[in-house]
Amino acid sequence: MSFLLRDASQADIPAIADIYRDSVLNGVASYEIIPPSEAEMMQRFAAIVGQHYPYIAAADVDGNLLGYAYASAFRTRPAYRWMVEDSIYLAPEARGRGIGRALMAELIDRCTALGFRQMVAVIGGASPASIALHLKAGFAEVGLMRGTGYKHGRWLDTMLMQRSLGDGMTTDPDASIYPGTLFTG
User: Fold this and answer.
1) What digits encode the pLDDT tens for the residues 124-183?
2) Which end of the chain has fewer CB atoms surrounding its CB within 10 Å, N or C?
3) With the C-alpha atoms ordered 59, 60, 64, 65, is the resulting torsion angle positive or negative?
4) Element of type H or E holding 89
5) DSSP assignment string, 135-147
6) Where in this chain does the record put each N-acetyltransferase domain (predicted)?
7) CB neighbours of 104 closer than 8 A, spacing ≥ 6?
């Protein structure tokens, strides 16, 4: 399956909402029970890109969206501003074809270039496929929270994974430039 990566745009929101809807209704990556509307997905998109976090789309040669990935604040307290949380969602037909790996690599590259120092993954349902993807991308398991959600008639665990970006913890960041300017007020 041939695909290209590009910045996601507002025009992608209907397809993003469809992909996420499938994950909400049929998967355990999201702990939402009711899929959000397109309007809600637009608001979430605007909040993420409005803070200059990367939001990436994977599309086939005909322009059909196969998946998307974005980074967002792990927490909004100022000391957390150097850490991002990754999110990757794929259309069912795109899974197992290297698209998630490509989205992850691009997301890591963009977050590193922006100056973030840590990336965390909060993996709902402790999905073995998502854990494997993150391990291949250099993440380490940092914790398993048991019974964090109840969905599809069963209790779900959440795996926490983390990897350093750029200089990680080896140097002090510059608080006067992005992402140092996030959440300072």
Assistant:
1) 999 999 999 999 999 999 999 999 999 999 999 999 999 999 999 999 999 999 999 998
2) C
3) negative
4) strand 83-90
5) HHTT-EEEEEEEE
6) 3-166
7) 69, 86, 88, 133, 134, 137
- Euclidean distance between CA atoms 16 and 181, whole angstroms: 29
Per the CB < 8 A criterion, the answer to whether 68 and 57 are in contact is yes
The answer to whether the CB of 128 falls within 8 A of the CB of 107 is no
User: Within 13 Å, how many C-alpha atoms sit on residue 81's CB side?
Assistant: 20
Query: With pLDDT > 90 as the criterion, what percentage of the chain qualifies?
Result: 98
3-state secondary structure of 157: strand
Q: Residue 59, Cα to own-chain centre: how many angstroms?
A: 17
Residue type, 106: E
- Please state, in angstroms and rounded to a whole number, the distance separating the CA atoms of residues 114 and 174: 12
| Spatial separation of the C-alpha atoms in residues 49 and 93, rounded to whole Å | 27
What is the residue type of 117?
A: R
The SS3 of residue 40 is: helix
The token duo for 89 is 């969602």
What are the phi and psi torsion angles at 173 (to 5°)?
A: -80, 165
